[in-house]
């Protein structure tokens, strides 16, 4: 087990390094001068003086290996430099906004898992029936509808037509807890819908597969009732792949709440990223991308370790 | 055309329809998408504008159809580009392995370490918004997915015999890849393409929505939704139309992908989720119809008479076991012997109500005498009734202990579960009883083994644990289905010894030992019942049957056992007939060297050479 944790952790650190390097290469290996590229708008050429100033600020005049080391060092120390737009330290902005994004993701994951696992399990034990067909259709529809469509329609419905929820915005929990939760409800619910669909499909498939296993027959042979069999033998084993997928999806969401934050005007990390991309604020973009990637990699690591705890066989398997 | 293929027609037609409308946009008589008509902004549907006009008075329907063009062009374009690049990378990586594998597949997989939307944003930051940067970003994004799919498919194909043969004949690798490997990886590739088109549309519309994708005034669904949000209060329909178009199109492609997957891999789904473990039924009580007073004969534990088992599927019925009779007395060991396909395992499963979902008992009388002396008709028992007698009255040891034990539960918990299911022991008593059981089945250091997971035990130890589960509630009848088949010969002997010692410890327990191994039978059985092609062909005390078989099949089986006494091994020619092609007359006749014309007409009756013995051979006197 300790060996497994060590190997997986080293792999994670290696992946972070790969991502850091990749981002660096993406900026420097694209043909043309990065500074010029960043400053040009469409076909309008950039002002040479501005380009020279930017080259100086970005350290582009240093030898490439020193730029790379600076880039690496920035990630290790969490210092992503100052924003081009307002000169504020990027790391500080990230620290304020990241928890807000995580809040949406965690709330969504909890809602999706609580609503998705029971529904998926029920659909599985009624496989081929009407409820199953209906659930499958709902899940397909939920997966096929982009989050910004769901978000926009939800605002239209609850904020514009029914007027029971605020259309969007953010109030810190410490200022007004009730309003904070009200504002959280729609963005979290919107993210949860897509996640729910994934969880329903996964848990349905996993339960169906486990129901066919020999050890379920053994459980019947012991004289266990179908309730205990479902709880102890079927769902427990089926949960392992479901939780894996949930963890991976949460990782994807860290960069994927962009649209939801935008639609609901939630000042999280992703919204910050869009603004940074829009303004081509290089330190901001790199800082956010790096933060998200690092969390993504370590979340994957956490998923693997939790899996190893749930399924004792995993830590023995060499990858 | 199979059912799965027929089910493809609807989604394929829908997808074709959507694509056709969008592709034909320039030919359709639509108003210009850019001609504004500001006085009529937000106008409702009219004869000239079927879906009304937008915030600049432009025709909504026309913009909807043209907007699909941008989405579809980007999605299909990047899906195909990524498919081509990914396929090449996957083929090369999977075929050549080694260093090539590292620089193609593994390198591409690094991209999967980044959240997808993030990567797209990064590319857009560097290259600026627009159709082509978007296609590039999505191509980069989806290439590793294809590379992975093709790679794993290639790995499977490359080791197949006909690929190895081509290699041996000196064909060039590229030729092999193009003519042999590529066609074989096409099915998973097709599924991926429809999946990626749907997914690419999701991302494209999202980026366009943010203003980072398609650049106005080119119409796009993402842009239309974005614009409609501003005028949501005035014209909610403007929001709904592009939303429906977008979600509907993506749904169509996902739908197509689902059906494609089922059509290409029909193994998929069994109805009814293991039939929800056979329904609930009455709450645990043995139904009155299944009870009968007074045992027929003293000492009888189980009496099976003329039991038939059939597979029912869509109105057709296929008989797998025909009029089987077996009797087990208290303390007796009966061996159920036969080749694979003789129906012996099914017979055992039927006695515990654990038949596979499609099978059921279709006839005969199956009586079991319970501990309280009451007789139970197993044929009339429902799941709840079986639940009550399983483990405590009739218990079962399965062949493959590795698969029959739950991999994520500790051994001790799995034994304890059997104890608790029948409400006997509680709390600390259970733990003590578990250790005692594990010691009884001969597991060394039982306290520690109780905390182990199945994969931490050896094959023989797992089978011992399985047996501990089975005997936890002191069953009156233990059915062991090939319990030694999967084990090494030395371990087999140990497990047999365990069964013998269990019998000694509980002299009243009846044992049905299902096996194809006559050497094992000789070791353990009091009586032997020989099955062939779903029928009992011979039955009697083990030593008598071994000494003087009264059925040619038994004789042939005996001759095929490697034993000191026999000069040479004689294999039985032919194979067991399939259930849907049973010969008329004696089922063994086609393989029997003693067969005469009389054997091929009419099923042979059961003869009783002695009161204790039965045979289903008409010529038993002549061949004895």
TrEMBL record, chain A:
One of its GO terms (cellular component) is plasma membrane. Belongs to the binding-protein-dependent transport system permease family. Gene3D superfamilies: MetI-like. Keywords: Cell membrane, Membrane, Transmembrane, Transmembrane helix, Transport. GO terms for biological process: transmembrane transport. Residues 98-307 form the ABC transmembrane type-1 domain. It comes from Palleronia aestuarii. The chain crosses the membrane at residues 12-30, 104-125, 137-159, 179-199, 238-265, 285-310. Its main location: membrane. CDD domains: TM_PBP2. Pfam families: BPD_transp_1, BPD_transp_1_N. InterPro entries: BPD_transp_1_N (IPR045621), MetI-like (IPR000515), MetI-like_sf (IPR035906). It is found in: Cell membrane. It is a multi-pass membrane protein. This is Peptide/nickel transport system permease protein.
UniProtKB/TrEMBL annotation, chain B:
It is a peripheral membrane protein; Multi-pass membrane protein. Pfam families: ABC_tran (PF00005), BPD_transp_1 (PF00528), oligo_HPY (PF08352). The chain crosses the membrane at residues 72-96, 117-142, 189-215, 236-256. GO terms for molecular function: ATP binding; ATP hydrolysis activity. InterPro entries: AAA+_ATPase (IPR003593), ABC_Ni/Peptide_Import (IPR050388), ABC_transporter-like_ATP-bd (IPR003439), ABC_transporter-like_CS (IPR017871), MetI-like (IPR000515), MetI-like_sf (IPR035906), Oligopep_ABC_C (IPR013563), P-loop_NTPase (IPR027417). SMART domains: AAA. Keywords: ATP-binding, Cell membrane, Membrane, Nucleotide-binding, Transmembrane, Transmembrane helix, Transport. Residues 302-558 form the ABC transporter domain. PROSITE patterns: ABC_TM1 (PS50928), ABC_TRANSPORTER_1 (PS00211), ABC_TRANSPORTER_2 (PS50893). GO terms for biological process: peptide transport; transmembrane transport. It is found in: Cell inner membrane; Cell membrane. Residues 68-257 form the ABC transmembrane type-1 domain. GO terms for cellular component: plasma membrane. Belongs to the binding-protein-dependent transport system permease family. Belongs to the ABC transporter superfamily. This is Peptide/nickel transport system permease protein. It comes from Palleronia aestuarii. The lineage of its organism: Bacteria, Pseudomonadati, Pseudomonadota, Alphaproteobacteria, Rhodobacterales.
